Amino acid sequence: MSDGQPLPLEWGVAMRPLSGETESGDVAVIESSAAVTLVAAIDGLGHGPEAAAAARVAAGILEAGVGVEVATLVERCHRALEPTRGASMSLAAFDSSDDTMTWVAIGNVEGRLVGRQRPVRSIFPAAGVAGVELPPLSPETLSLRRGSTLIFATDGVQSSFSDSLASSGSPQQVADRIMNEHGKSTDDALVLVVRYLRPST
């Protein structure tokens, strides 16, 4: 993750491995370059060391690719993950130059964008697994306002986490609340919450 927060974003991450495992196959990425911040939630297939290894491969590709189109990054991950068991992922690029976010997903990492006085938007992941099967990808670009909040959750979190999307509290508090209320005990779990702070002009 980036050492600083040069862009007008704040974030929080809650994660835990499956009980009995020493490492998690669910990994968050937050990396900035110039006006763009790339964030992602990666879920290595299954759990344990092999899942963690796959997730680390994908994370390395994404961390080195800030500013590259999100669909291209998924394609790069797919090629790099072919020797592994593969991974699902959702990623989003925040661009402060025009107050937009472009997101794309493959597999089962869910995403929601919550905005004040706006309906909740959901990401629609392509069916497949990076490294195993890469379907056509359909990135979507959305406009942002101050306070727009992105939530990514792996499948170790119940889909009912939408019930906890109230924007009150810091991103870390929101991530912790979702994990505590909706995290499963049968899988690795990760929640990434990113809030956009830039006042639109």
Summarize the structure.
With 201 residues, this protein is an alpha+beta fold. It is 19% helix and 32% strand. The strands form two sheets. Strands 1-10-9-6-7 form a five-stranded antiparallel beta sheet, covered by helices on one side. The chain has a five-stranded antiparallel beta sheet with strand order 2-3-4-5-8.
CATH class (first level) name: Alpha Beta
CATH architecture: 4-Layer Sandwich
Largest sheet: 5 strands, antiparallel
Q: Could you spell the SSE succession in H and E letters?
A: EEEHHEEEEEEHE
CATH superfamily heading: PPM-type phosphatase domain
In whole angstroms, how far apart are the ends? Answer: 29 Å
Poorly predicted parts: 1-5
